[in-house]
Amino acid sequence: MFVIDVTLDPILFEIGPFQMSWHGLIATTAILVAVWVALVLARRSAIPESSIGRLMWWAIPGGVIGARLFNVLDHLPYYSDNPIEVLFIWQGGIAAYGAFIGGLVSAVVAARREGLPVWQLLDVAAPAMLIGQAIGRIGCFLNGDTVGGPTAGGWGVAYWHPDALVPRSLAGIPTHPYPLYEIIWDLAMLG
């Protein structure tokens, strides 16, 4: 069996109480690359770059809010008991699909308010979002927050670092690399 052993500390560096995680760095990179792709595609579609820039001021915060909201709803019993922690986004707990929904809804509302061509903008956004999602899943892969079930098949991934986000019961056990599967799927859809 081919097993990818992930021994990387999920935290890239710390300065006092501030921690920069690999996931945070890669998610930020994913957003920047997605915006750049959207700008390039907008130019080709004769959409003013300034329109994309204005929409990003709505889409990115909307995406962050959607990502957090989706995670909170997914773990509602915990957050019902700890409501103040809904605001503690720096402790983790975001969901990519919530980011898609929140960012998309925010951008569509902003585009309609400004009288921009929504369907043409969605044609620009779709490839950018797929590329951003593929890059962002690298962060999920590195920190172990999205793992599949144990596998005895041809390949898997095992997380060894004590701070990896993989459930303790799966530490060191080969699991299906769901983030890698999704990266492949995202790239196939992009193609």
How would you characterize the overall build of this protein?
- With 191 residues, the protein is mostly helical.
- The chain is built from six helices and four strands.
- It has helices at 22-44, 49-74, 76-81, 96-114, 118-143, 178-190, and strands at residues 2-6, 11-15, 18-21, 155-159.
- A two-stranded parallel ribbon has the order 1-4. A two-stranded antiparallel ribbon has the order 2-3.
- The longest helix is centred in the first third of the chain and has 26 residues, at 49-74.
- The model has no long low-confidence stretch (mean pLDDT 92).
Q: What structural category characterises the helix and strand content? A: mainly alpha
How would a crystallographer describe the biggest sheet?
A: 2 strands, parallel
Instruction: Classify the beta-strand content into a percent band.
Output: 5-15%
Q: Residue ranges: pLDDT <50 for 5 or more in a row?
A: none
From the spread of the alpha carbons, the general shape counts as globular
What letter string, H or E per element, gives the SSE order? EEEHHHHHEH
What is the topology, as strand order, of the major beta sheet? 1-4
* Mean pLDDT over the residues: 92
Radius of gyration, CA atoms, in whole angstroms:
18 Å
What's the end-to-end separation, in Å?
30 Å
> Which range best describes the helical content: under 10%, 10-25%, 25-40%, 40-55%, 55-70% or over 70%?
55-70%
Q: How many individual β-strands?
A: 4
> What's the helix count?
6
